[in-house]
Amino acid sequence: MIQFLVEHENELSEKIHVLISHILNAHEIWNTRILKVPTQYGVWQLQNWKEMLEVDIKNYEISLSILESKELDANVDYITSTGEHYSNSIQDLLFHVINHSNYHRAQINSELKSLGLKPLITDYVFYKRK
After folding, report:
1. End-to-end CA distance of the chain
2. Is 38 exposed, middle or buried (0-12, 13-18, 19+ CB in 10 A)?
3. pLDDT digits 0-9 by tens, 51-60
4. For 87-103, how does the pLDDT look when each residue is reduced to its tens digit (9 = 90+)?
5. Helices 90-114 and 52-69, interaxial angle, to 10°?
6. Closest CA to 23 of 8, 4, 41
7. pTM greater than 0.90 (yes/no)
8. Phi and psi of 117, rounded to 5°?
9. What is the C-alpha to C-alpha distance for residues 38 and 40, in angstroms, rounded to an integer?
10. Is 83 helix (H, G, I), strand (E, B) or coil?
C-alpha cells in the first residue's frame, strides 16, 4: 500500500497522508513501548512520503525481532499519549498493531475509492500466496 501511495501522492487527499502516517507512527510507538526505548514519532505526526517505506520496513523488522526475542505472554507496563498507565501482554500489543493497521487501511481504501482510484488488496493471505 505504501509503495502505491508514494507513487500517487499528488493524487491523494490530506486524509490519506494523515492515516498512513498514523499507521506508521503507531506501529513504531508500540514497538518502542514494548522495548522500553524512546519513540521517534508523535501519534499524528506527518511522515515524509519519501521515507515511509523505510519506516515501514524498520517497524516490521523490529516487530519480528520482538517476536523472536521476547516472551509473548510477558506484560508490558506503558503510559499512553494521554498519560494513562496500562499493562498488557506483548502478544496483545502486537495483535493490536495489526488490528489498528487493518482498520486504517480500510479507511484509506475507502478514501481511494472516493477519489476515483482503485482500492488496494491489503489482505495478508494474498501476499503469502505468491
Report:
1. 16
2. exposed
3. 999 999 999 9
4. 999 999 999 999 999 99
5. 160
6. 41
7. yes
8. -100, 150
9. 7
10. coil
